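A protein record in our archive is deliberately plain, so that people and models can read it alike. The record that follows is passed on verbatim for readers who wish to inspect the format.
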Amino acid sequence: MASFFSTDSAYSRFMNKLGDLILLSLLWVVCSLPLVTMGTATCAAYYTAAKVIRHRNGYVSQEFFRSFKQNFRTSIGLNIMYLVLAVMLVFNLMYFKEGETELNFYMRCVYIAIGVMLLGVMLNTYILLSRFKLGTGKLFIMAFVITFGHLPTTLLLVAACVAVAVLVYLVPWAAFILPGLTFWGATFPAERVMKKYMPKAEEGTKEADIWYNN
């Protein structure tokens, strides 16, 4: 029985990971409340999910706020730009929702497709920001290239985000666990893409042991 509750047992590892996921979810929700900081919080949450929860390096709150502070200046302009684009998109979608004409139907489909791509570019922007030090222009261009160059991965990430948003809307208490779980799950497909844009570290060097190369 003692071994069941030991720090190295499967039960203890599971409970530690569950606690980390809940804490990450709460940090993301709280830091996203001003809306203009949602992108910065997303960047920090992805970074923390990859480094701490997946690769067991560091502590959730420490790494989250370190990434949040480090990327705040670069991300704030992007946050405002994406927020404005999202509001405009929703406004146009609601405008064409009123009528039942064939034109309105096609315009709704067009705006939904644009919304999916915009969400994909947004997600890739913040994933890239968590990994690379780039200027705003280069960051946006690289996010655009990855979005369409790795479309299946992008659509998978977008579908996961939409599914989580719907589930949290239907079951509000799921906000305590689903955001962190989604960020952790997103690291698996996203890391495979990110590695394609990273210089390969030589085996046996210090760089080869860094968490993002694992």
